Input
Amino acid sequence: MNFHLLVYGVYLPVTVLLTVWVARTLFNNGRLFLVDIFHGNEQLADSVNKLLLMGFYLINIGYAMLTLQSGDPIISYQQSVETLSIKIGTIILILGGMHFFNLYVFYKLRHKAQEYARAYHS
Output
């Protein structure tokens, strides 16, 4: 049996589904932050949100494709599971890192917008 094909067949769908799920969650919940950052300009907030979504997909799915190849031989089910756990675990860590990076960027943008509003309205 070709265990590499088994790993690829599990890795690709799981990675894409995880990426889509995290991206959609960020997209849906990040909109409120962006509307606030852009002082109620919903059209601009939605546009930036869509651009962030596209970038998130490109970075994460691109990385998943780059790490698809497994250099080590996979000759058993055990090695298949171990390889999958490393690959999928890495993707999950990257998705988590991207999530916290997005939260940090939203926080910084919102903080600057609030400072600007205070200075402008004072």
Notes: The chain has one domain: 3-67+79-121. Residues 77-121 form the longest helix (45 residues). Residues 112 and 118 are 10 Å apart (CA to CA).
